[in-house]
Amino acid sequence: MQQKKVIAFVTGGYSGEAEISYKSAITIGKNLDREKFDVYKIDIRKDGWFYLPETGDPVAVNQNGFIIELPDKTIRFDAVLIGIHGTPGEDGKLQGYFDLQGLPYTSCDAATSALTFNKRYTVAVAAFAGINVARSLHLFRERPLEPAAILDQLKLPVFVKPNNGGSSIGMSKVSRPEDLEAAIQKAFGEDNQVLIEEFITGREFTIGVFQSKGEIITLPFTEIIAKNEFFDFEAKYAGKSEEITPAQVDIVVAEKVREAARKVYRVFNCRGIIRIDFIYNEAAGAPYMLEINTVPGQSEASIVPQQVRAMGWTLKDFYSALIEDALEHK
Hints:
The chain has 10 helices and 17 strands. It is α+β, with helices and mostly antiparallel strands.
């Protein structure tokens, strides 16, 4: 009988997005194939990295080699399943650490993770590669711009959001000039950099994309109909949106979205599961990329699990495919 691969499942994180990571961890933990893998859940927090056994006290992880030293044995890993949203699991820091350890992992590499965590750099690379994106401005806390100077370059309405991170925390839609400064300060409350983007009218779609056995696979995509003015944190996590999976669209539109998603995956050299948000603008007859999530949410309410089920896979099959793909890159 083939020996089980030993997998570190990392959760937690150093940012406010840790609460989303813990919700994802519940779903992932319930759907990992324990017949294929020996799984060790590791909580990465600012006060330390800890293995969480099912019974007994947490055990500190030896970060000099990423090993767990138990009384009767030392645990070394074959691969890492990354379930951390925000820093350090989505911004390339952990990926760089695991690269130094020679450990494969289930996400994009360090360079792609760091790039896509920065929304402005993401849209700049996408535009350079011929992927449609909104016009935008990048603000730095130490080099502020007056609202009037911003409105000389961008047309209202605009979205104002923290440049780094996900989960739509600190994001605002601004339709009146007098509201712009407050929205910028709200975003600066979450990050030292802010992205301001022109609003593109159209239907909002979000699509999961992953790689398995050398093939880029697009999941059945979702249309987001926000009950709030846009798809913000409340809409995402407090049920303030309607999500239709699979989206009801004609074949031509569906293929344009899928092809754009595959192109994004290739251009950014992605690995593992990502989720890409698009606005489909009818006038242009084209999808516009909003952002890339390289560690998308996996809670029961999250979109990727909905899409996996819509494809006819079980989550157990899906997480196994992600781990097996990572092991192939060892």
